[in-house]
Amino acid sequence: MAEAEAMEKEIDTGGAKQTFKDLFAGAAGGVAQVSVQFGGFHYARRQFEARNTLKGKSADLSYTQLYLSGAFAGLANAYLSGPIEHVRIRLQTQPHGADRLYNGPIDCVRKLVRQGGGIGGVYRGQVVTLAREAMAYGTWFLTFEYLMRQHSQRTSTPRSSIPAPLIALYGGIAGEALWLSSYPFDVVKSKMQSDGFGSQMRYLNMREAFRQTWREEGVRGFWRGIGPTCVRALPVSAGTFIVVEMVMRAMR
Question: Span 232-237, mean pLDDT?
């Protein structure tokens, strides 16, 4: 209901054409990020498999290697997710109507570059974004692969025969693990990316953002909003993994 009201307000104040442009840009960015995440994970996975084989071991990755492969994917993804999420946050938190600051994503990028003194304005909060992405996607891929592997071993079922509902379940659990492992970093990232510029800037760096959040809000400040995030994450992550698994099966 709240999302529908927000959409109505956005259309009334910014126009339907601009609203759907923003939505399309966000969707395109999401597709690009998923491609980088899975591409990065499988690239790192192949490197570990080759290394294991060269050492005369099983090609199967250890759980540590699975985590590191996911972390590599997260680090690669950070260079997309950092600016994409920064622009989205600016667009979502700006005033409406005559006080509107940005006329869409492109205008937002131009102004962030100008206000931030170059490309660094777009990549504000990138250090904490790198930390979040490495932790999040290391956990995400590790959790999913662990659950799939354990199911195969427990039931003597090849991965290719695990039914779709269970893939969705394991993918959903992985989505919950992703956010539970990285949410405090996301909170700090969002604070930095919605912060002002120049004399209006509150957080000079990631450490200062963590320090101020702890001082002003305590431990709860790092988990504010975790409930709705986890509710949203379960179906999104479940859908992502089941689509990828089904596509990979079809390609074999």
Answer: 97
Determine contact, residues 122/115, Cβ cutoff 8 Å: no
Q: What is the dihedral of CA 240, 243, 244, 246, to 10 degrees?
A: 150
Q: How far is CA 89 from the centre of its chain?
A: 13
Instruction: Classify the C-alpha dihedral 47-52-56-57 as positive or negative.
Output: negative
Which residues are CB-contacts of 68 (< 8 A; sequence separation ≥ 6)? 44, 48, 138
| Residue (of 237, 209, 212, 213) closest to 224 by Cα position | 213
Angle at 33 between CA 240 and CA 82, to 5 degrees: 130
Q: State the pLDDT confidence band at 25, using cuts at 50, 70 and 90.
A: low
- Report residue 5's pLDDT band, with 50, 70 and 90 as the boundaries: very low
- pLDDT tens sequence across 127-138: 999 999 999 999
- The set of residues, in sequence order, having a beta carbon less than 8 Å from that of 174 and lying 6+ positions away, is 139, 140, 141, 143, 144, 147, 237, 241
Q: Tell me which residue of 158, 188, 172 sits closest to 233, measured CA to CA.
A: 172
63: exposed, middle or buried (C-beta count within 10 Å: 0-12, 13-18, 19+)?
exposed
Dihedral sign from CA coordinates of 77, 211, 114, 85:
positive
